[in-house]
Design goal:
The complex is a heterodimer of chains A (about 375) and B (about 325). Chain A has 13 helices and 2 strands. Chain A has about 375 residues and is an all-alpha fold. Chain A folds into 2 domains: about 10-50 and about 325-360, no CATH class; about 70-320, ABC transporter involved in vitamin B12 uptake, BtuC (Orthogonal Bundle). Chain B is about 70% helix and about 0% strand. Chain B has helices spanning about 5-30, 40-60, 70-95, 100-125, 135-145, 155-160, 165-185, 185-195, 195-200, 205-235, 245-255, 260-275, 290-310, and strands at about 135, 235-240. Chain B has a two-stranded antiparallel sheet with strand order 1-2. In chain B, α2 runs parallel beside α4 (about 100-125). The chains are: A mainly alpha (about 375), B mainly alpha (about 325). At the A-B interface, β1, α6, α11 and α13 of A face α3, α4, α11 and α13 of B.
């Protein structure tokens, strides 16, 4: 980038702040460029014209009432996990263990459904499911936080490892509770009695999830922006030293926030088992815990923007899924498209945080890379 | 009696992909980049090797016309190229554009696993077989070939000499990486970049270049892990998602070895052993316990992570600026 005796070709400096609509404009441009690149790749793969590909994407997400509700359900789950990781991210605690925390929530709910089915009435089972799933998620999130606050153990690596401990734990119980015997998996739990199944409201199977997550989004927005706890989280995130100085107990904030974060993941697990799938597998969360990290980051940790970003990612994924079935491609095509779009949006953040001044005397064209 | 003679070679074969992955990731992390895209990189490395080998085998007039040199070099180069590209994407985003490393890494994993499964699936379709996998046994036989006299040496040959060349390459790379990190100027500079890029920059070290070179080299080494898995361990059979979560296990191994590739040689074999231990422990008919044994590597890693942070010895800590982007004009 630098040549010895010459003024560098361009100079990068940090922007103070960018008006919000300009920032959005940059992100929008990045998204559009990404969509064009994806279209080119899709055209190369399928030989169709790009418009029909985007039509297929939209059809795949919104085409029929059923597809629409599946999309809503997926958005709700992704959004729930993204909300869960957000308070931790705001204090720069990199919780990438949402996958495991949610899986523990799934596990706890399923355990209640299986073990308590002949003991308690339905309402008590559901109550137990709610409590234990939140507790399980909170424990899974709280452990790394405890060690982080005490001995500054690296939380990124710790939470990452906890995902796989959770996966193997669930794998173990999938065999222990297998039904029918010898299948190695748990079928639909309580299929006849529907014990522990969360109630269906409004005649739509996924309505409950969507409504709950909308409520959680609003609550999280208020918690982060208008409560004392939210303020403490922001201060700890900005500077732990400042937090100490103004008398915030940093250790307590870290543990409290991660307990909350884990418990929210647990709720996502509860919804996955109790309301959507009624079963337990190791892949129930399906990588959403990792996608949630990106959703939260793309929205700049703002719960309301997260509705948009989680929608974007889910629509893309389901749309790409539709492309692959329609044009006879492999399902993983959607992962590639998602990856490309993420790269562009991640890259675009640079142009929001920094500005590039190109050397005046230069005759060369500016190097524009998005 | 525990059957060591058959256990150790299998543990080694499980461990080698992890060793490649962790050596690559250690180099990367020493430059301050926490590349969580390693699982994706390993997938890409594997599939690129498969693509190279597939088209080479297809271009041959008859299966017997295969030559050892191109049969090894084509997949090897394709693998290195593919993983280099992944490394470059990561570096461009995190070093040049200073993006968040965790997010970039996770996106890379999504992307890389997608690439692996997508092209894997497409090749399976191209080859038109009934089973959902591609078998490249001709190419694989070259990767798998061990020393001719290994058979004659009894247990010694079985434990030490029964592997393909990539196994020894993995160990050599790990030892070389350890030497470079600890005993050369370049290694010292690299560690300085990872610990405190500001200080390194002030000392006249080109921070961006070190980060780029270390991360890209790291990616290429990790990619070889994918190649080893397909060509040697799986005998040339690619089936989607077969590689599993070994990429994350490789990242776990980095912590377990407290950022020392030479420790990784034995540690990877230990991890490989833990991974397959359930097959050698008499657990009766209880299949469930096997899943708990698979948990061991992760639990052990967490314990090591906690203990190193508790003992708080300076040389055992993660690189100080791990995960942080560097911008010279900040503060």
């Amino acid at each position: 980038m630098h040549s010895k005796n010459q003024e560098p070709l361009f100079h990068i400096s940090k922007r103070d702040s960018l008006v919000w609509y300009k920032a959005m404009l940059i992100r929008l441009v990045a998204l559009l460029v990404a969509l064009v690149v994806c279209a080119i790749i899709s055209v190369l793969m399928t030989g169709e014209n790009p418009l029909s590909i985007y039509q297929t994407i939209l059809y795949g997400s919104f085409g029929t009432t059923r597809k629409l509700w599946v999309t809503f359900q997926n958005v709700a789950m992704l959004l729930c996990l993204s909300l869960a990781v957000t308070p931790a991210f705001r204090m720069r605690f990199w919780n990438i263990g949402a996958e495991g925390q949610a899986l523990m929530g799934c596990f706890a709910s399923a355990a209640c459904m299986i073990l308590l089915k002949n003991v308690f009435p339905n309402w008590a089972i559901i109550l137990c499911m709610v409590l234990t799933s939140m507790l399980a998620g909170a424990i899974w999130g709280g452990l790394p936080a405890f060690f982080k606050s005490r001995w500054n153990t690296n939380e990124t690596l710790f939470t990452l490892m906890m995902n796989y401990v959770a996966t193997q734990l669930v794998a173990y119980f999938c065999v222990v509770w297998e039904s029918p015997k010898g299948s190695g998996q748990i079928g639909i739990i309580n299929p006849n009695t529907e014990l522990g199944w969360l109630p269906v409201i409004g005649g739509q199977k996924y309505m409950l999830n969507v409504v709950l997550v909308i409520v959680l989004t609003v609550l999280m927005f208020i918690y982060l922006n208008f409560s004392k706890h939210g303020y403490e989280i922001s201060v700890v995130g900005e500077s732990e030293k400042t937090a100490h100085y103004v008398g915030i107990k940093v250790e307590r904030v870290i543990i409290r926030t991660m307990l909350l974060s884990g418990a929210m993941c647990g709720i996502a697990g509860l919804l996955l088992v109790g309301s959507t799938n009624h079963t337990l597998t190791t892949t129930l969360v399906g990588g959403r815990g990792f996608t949630a990290v990106m959703v939260s980051w793309l929205a700049k940790f703002n719960p309301l923007w997260m509705i948009l970003t989680s929608f974007l990612l889910v629509v893309l994924e389901r749309g790409a899924g539709e492309i692959s079935t329609n044009f006879g491609l492999n399902q993983s095509f959607s992962d590639i498209l998602t990856g490309i779009i993420l790269f562009f949006i991640i890259g675009s953040e640079f142009f929001i945080a920094y500005q590039i001044r190109i050397r005046k005397s230069s005759t060369k064209e500016a190097q524009t890379h998005v | 009696m525990f059957d060591f003679v058959s256990f150790i070679p299998r543990a080694v074969m499980q461990g080698i992909p992890l060793l490649f992955g962790s050596t690559g990731e250690t180099l990367t992390e020493k430059s301050g980049n926490l590349n969580l895209g390693i699982p994706g990189v390993m997938y890409v490395g594997g599939i690129c090797g498969v693509i190279g080998a597939f088209f080479y085998e297809q271009s041959l007039p008859s299966p017997d016309a295969i030559h050892a040199f191109p049969a090894i070099m084509i997949p090897l180069c394709a693998c290195l190229l593919g993983s280099l590209l992944m490394g470059l994407i990561y570096c461009f985003l995190t070093v040049t554009l200073r993006a968040n490393q965790n997010v970039t890494g996770l996106a890379m994993t999504t992307f890389g696993v997608g690439i692996g499964n997508f092209f894997g699936g497409s090749l399976i379709k191209l080859s038109g077989t009934a089973v959902p996998s591609i078998a490249l046994s001709a190419t694989s036989s070259f990767f798998h070939r061990s020393l001719p006299f290994a058979q004659d040496l009894g247990w010694f040959g079985k434990i030490f000499l029964s592997y393909g060349f990539l196994t020894y390459l993995a160990i050599a790379i790990a030892l070389i990486a350890a030497f470079i990190l600890r005993h050369t100027r370049a290694g010292l500079h690299l560690r300085a970049v990872g610990e405190s890029p500001t200080t390194a920059d002030a000392a006249g070290i080109n921070v961006s270049r070190y980060k780029y070179v270390a991360t890209c080299t790291g990616s290429m080494i990790a990619g070889l892990g994918g190649l080893y898995y397909v060509m040697d361990y799986a005998s040339g059979v690619w089936s989607n998602n077969a590689f599993g979560d070994r990429g994350w296990l490789a990242i776990a191994l980095v912590i377990f070895t407290i950022w020392r590739p030479n420790v990784g040689v034995l540690a990877s074999i230990l991890f490989g052993g833990l991974y397959i231990l359930h097959m050698y422990i008499p657990s009766g008919m209880n299949l469930a316990v096997k899943e708990l044994y698979k948990m061991l590597p992760y639990v052990v890693t967490i314990i090591v992570l906690i203990l190193t942070s508790m003992r708080n010895k300076r040389e055992n800590q993660p690189p100080q600026s791990l995960g942080l982007p560097y911008f010279r004009e900040e503060r």
